[in-house]
Amino acid sequence: MQDHIVVLTGAGMSAESGLSTFRDNGGLWEQYSVYDVATPEAFERNRELVLRFYNERRRQLEHAQPNRGHQLLAQLEKDYRVTVITQNVDDLHERGGSSNVLHLHGELTKARSLDHPELIYDIGYADINPGDTCDRGSQLRPHVVWFGEEVPMLDAAAELVRTADHLLIVGTSLQVYPAASLAHEVDMTVPITVIDPDAPGSLVRARVIRKGAGEGLAEWMEKTPRGGAI
């Protein structure tokens, strides 16, 4: 049976494709404060601004391309069972070739009903505007987890992490909770590798590669035997 590699990815993975991150801009994203564009209160206060912000992100994503890191993770599927758990809301893992991706914080290319959250729609890179409604007449909103909201996929992600034969953490400094708590769900016998230029030393038993996603994954794969136990 193939070993199961569970990969937890963060903003650093998308940054190498040119997508801006809050972490790199001191709490700003394209000059917007997180509190103005990424909270339920912001949506109540200024729906037009929030929708415009995510429309801009969607247009930016449409022109972004998967980078070397995305492609290397997809290549791992030739030799291992691979599950990607991403904190990112873009679709670059899927476009890069990964076939098993869980989005912790939602997906930018989907919309959902404000009043009926079970109604979720694939919208690709199209805009969402004030007055765009679901089949039951409720305003559509981005299908993303805003700051202050629960992370509905967290339990499912934790279950996946517990099945890992190796936990690979890429492009995240493990500063954002509750997602960062997933690193503590693995059995003590399971090896952990962290690939990030700003990787902390808090996971004392982890192997740390302080490089960007693409360069760090290439180094890790070069030293990892193909097809056998990791």
From TrEMBL:
EC class: transferase
Positions bound to substrate: 54, 57
Ranges where the Deacetylase sirtuin-type domain occurs: 1-230
Residues the record lists as binding NAD(+): 10-29, 87-90, 171-173, 213
GO cellular component, one term: cytoplasm
Main location class: cytoplasm
Keywords: Cytoplasm, NAD, Transferase
Record note on domains: 2 residues (Tyr-54 and Arg-57) present in a large hydrophobic pocket are probably involved in substrate specificity. They are important for desuccinylation activity, but dispensable for deacetylation activity.
Protein name per the record: NAD-dependent protein deacylase
Taxonomic lineage from the root: Bacteria, Pseudomonadati, Pseudomonadota, Gammaproteobacteria, Pseudomonadales
